Amino acid sequence: MLLLLTIVLSDREPSDSKELKVEIEGLFEKRINFGQDTSSMKVYLDSILMEAEERRSIPLKWAYYQLMADGFSIAHDGVNPRSDHYYRLAEQLIEQTDNMELQQVGMIREGYYFFVYRDIPKAFPWFLRADDMMGKVRPSRVPFLAEHYGFISGFFSFIGNHRKAARYLMEALPYTEERSRKGIDMLNSIGVFHERDSLKGESIKFYRRALGMAELVRDSVWIGILSGNLSSAEWESGHYSKAVSLVKRNINYSTKFNEPIDAMRANLALAGMYVKLGRWDSARAHVDQALPLMENKPYFLPYMTKAKKVQADIAHGTGNSLSELGYLSSYMVLNDSLERLQDRQRVLRVSWQWEAEKYRRSIKDADLKRKQVNLTFLFVVGFVVLFLLIIILSVNGSKNKIRLKNAELEGEQIRMAFQKELVDRELGELQNSLQEFTRTIQQNDQTIQRLRNEVIRNLDNFPEKQETLSENIEEIMGGEFMNEERWTKFQDIFERVYPGYLDLQKQSFQPLSQKELRLLALIKLGLNNRSMASLLGITLEGVKKAKQRLKKKQ
After folding, report:
1. pTM of the complete model
2. How many whole angstroms separate alpha carbon 160 and alpha carbon 168?
């Protein structure tokens, strides 16, 4: 019941969070554009800082830092150290709280700051960090949700991730005022993103929803824009008259309400439709209306290219070959420029998406490492607790046994005194045996120890063989050292420590005998001649001669 109550309470939105959101939104609406007069801006915003200090409110102070950062970016009209400084202060301050919504908004705003001034590499981490927080925030608590999610949506659309761009707008749509220009804009943008993602059916649904809303609120500008967006769908469905009518509607509203860019696009689209219908005069009239609305900027390059193609088609349709050749020549020059621009944009988008994926992988790796550290910590803590528990239980058990042992102590002491004499005798015999055994293994001890060290140093290469190798070494240490059986075991261990070494020697020398292979193995271990003589059962002179024979075989 307590767990259920906790879940229910956690899902309820406290009134103070709503009040905080409203208060932050009110601050974000304050004037920050003082041109380059940053002194007046500081005086104007100081009241926010004073109130934040008086109330000891981290969110208010965070909002003050955000406004200062925005104000300096306007004053400098670009990325600048003062804005960077205030964004850092805001980030460090809000990290002290568990307010995920303000943390995400701060990341989005800083990302947008770099994005607006086209410092894309610096914008990347902020937008990606904000995206990672999507599952941790409650959209209803995000100040100016539609605006901030519009910022991050625009970024993802810019790098070519239109699906994620649409997702952010759809997340904010339920919290946007119904029948508002902002809502119409969001519906249209979602339609555009779906269209760019080749989801034509979905895009038409959102265009129609937006048009219906625009007609309800009698927003003539949006009625015109959305009519133009829907015209292509009607044209593809074969409804040519309806498509033409929708584009004309778009042109009328765009011209009436001074929307030159939209009017230019609509005139160019209608000219293309008239070309396909073979209505050359109408096509020429509309392309002539579109051309004066274009500027010599990269944005207009696709439309200028399309205009030249339409003019070439008109000239071809009217039989004017000379004009057609001139238009086609201009079209080819513009199209080459457009393709180069599009190629650069594609390369950039691929690199940006790769950067995004690299960031995702680094986040996953960091999260996995953190989980591993946590598991290791829990394991160590559990082990320590278990160890302490065993000690406590052992101590308690020992206390209970002390009384019994005290009663037996006197008898045990008598028994021990008697056994001591027997042990002393047995110890003397063992010492004699040990001395004899020591004399036997003195000759091979150094070799075994060296081999052991080599095994230990190379143990990481075959940890699963640790137990087997240890048993082999211990077996070699007993008894007579270099008989055939022990040499076989020694050779097996040696070849595991130095894999392929003896095979390589067989290739480097003429045919080798078993004794020469043994000698090569002992040379590899770095033994001196005297030790090798003892282990091989030959004289010191014999070792020297054997080495000389090996040299001759090279």
Report:
1. 0.60
2. 14
